[in-house]
Here is the input.
Amino acid sequence: MNAPVLDKSVFGGRKVIDVDTHLVEPFDLWSSRAPAAMKARLPRVTMVDGVRSWVIDEDKILSKGAVPACTISREGIKWPGLDFIEKQIEDVDPAAYSVRERVAVMDRMGIDAQIVYPNILGFGGQKAVEVDEQLRLATVQIFNDAMAEMQADSGLRMFPMAMLPWWNVDLAVKEIARVHKLGLRGLNINSDPHLFRRADGSMLPDLGQSYWYPMWEACEAYDMPINFHIGASEESMDFVGAQGWPGLHRDMRSGLGGAMLFINNGKTMGNLILSGLLDRFTRLKFVSVESGLGWIPFLLEAIDYQMSETGFNACKLERRPSEYFRTNFFACFWFERRNLVHDIRQLGVDNCLFETDYPHPICLYPVDDMDKAFAGLTEEEKVKLLSGNAARLYNIAV
Here is the structure.
């Protein structure tokens, strides 16, 4: 099989910001930056039962097998299905973990900038809490330091989103200020902190409660968008498991699980709206990442209807639930074609962002068919979708 031709002309010469890509964390990301006292406890790759694995602390496994979550080979060929699960970092395209190689691939694809998300600690950093608080904080801060270095090394082409110490609001506020000073442009957070039990046995409040108000104030003060990537909590991370019937082939169960993950982001969006948070913090910007567009118009209409029928006594919002989308939310698209332009117009051209999900299994690689996908849009609208909206949201100069 030959490597696909990466044709940057598919974007028609327009600037492009890809708002959802992933980093395969280099094995030395933490160890090369670790203070001596923590070097043997921070995330690292070692052998466990004869299998190369990511480990944190003495023996807590983050990833048995250390699968790099990259579906593109060193030769630039995209493996089919879930074949990537059998691969190791030596097998994958170095662009998955090397800044220099990533920028070179971006140039061949015609992409000017990328927003970058983590892998090994979970898409919302949810796995960072499996250790004591001192170690988990160091894990998050060293990751953010490394991401700031990556952003600079890329010549401001790669923009990693900062991970937050979401288990403690005071720490989160301090880290928002710190990463803003480092130059990072957005935040990545666990969508379900209320499922976390603190050391004293109590549960954290959900994100709509006053406990979190200082964090939202900091987000507004530093103009930092908050990104909710699919699978950004332990509860929502279910790629293969519970959605598909046991009789389905593993790859089919994975396909259904992935599709349901897109829609499950509606739970976070709906709760943020109905919590009343956006009447208090009107300038917050939330991004539903790797979740597509098509389900959102229905969800917004359904919530409006439900509130008019069953929730009108309790709902104290200043506006209809659906009206908060255009003022406070962004959503991302990549594979959608059948109703893409219709859905974009329903949600608002200013609220939609283009992504590839590179280098994950369902990524656009290569990107094609963009003219057909955008049929009926004006030139101004195409520019907004490919880069203008993202540049404004993440404060990126293109």
In short: The first helix runs from residue 99 to 109.
